Amino acid sequence: MDTGEAKQGLYNSLRELGLSEAEISLYSASLTLGPVSISEIAQYVKISRPNVYKIIAGLERHGLTKFTQQSRYSRKFSVESPIVVLEKLREKREKMSRLDHDLVSTLPDLLTMYHQKESDTKIKVIQGKEQYLKIYNEIIEQAEKEIQYFGSAEDFVNFISPAAEASWIKRRVKKGINIKALLLPSETAATFSLTDMAELRETKTLKGVWPFTSSFELFSNKVIIWQPKAPLAILIEDKFIVEMLRSIFEKFWEMAD
Prior knowledge:
The chain is of the alpha+beta class.
């Protein structure tokens, strides 16, 4: 990694920790200078001493500063090592991971409490493979002209099984329901595209996005969000949410191959 990449990596890490542009600039300058007086760092970065003190106070709140053990007027200022930045970044990510896990585990209870005024919103939480398959098969009974699917077909099909997917496709074709499948690149996506015409499907692959395992499926005035790893699915009947996701789908559909 060259110097430019190293600096960019440090900048991105400090931004993720919540530092301001001024705090990042002062941290980077101090990293190069080593222990110096406030006057010296102010002169180096061309910022007045009162403003430098304010920026240092911000760095102190992030735990990224240190002073030599001298009197107040002669002590030297420096910043913590980039190793400390890495440790704090890992601590933040671990905390976010724990919060994410806690939210996912309580999501079913939270959704049962949810009520959207001035609408006929209905939300149903589905858990377990048996319930997955039941609600998945009900799509064919409730869908009208077209179904729209966006996400990872690989993870979804591997969860419900290729046999269950093949049976679902056969029933959908028999009923004459078309589907637009906007998929992440995978072997499953490539296989689907080979049989599009026979299976009343139009498949596109969305490249250049960070891979994910979830997906959503739009039909009638409803959407199902599939999360096969938990496993968890959320059925939402809300015209505003459906309109938003349909708009997102159409935009990505235009961008895909």
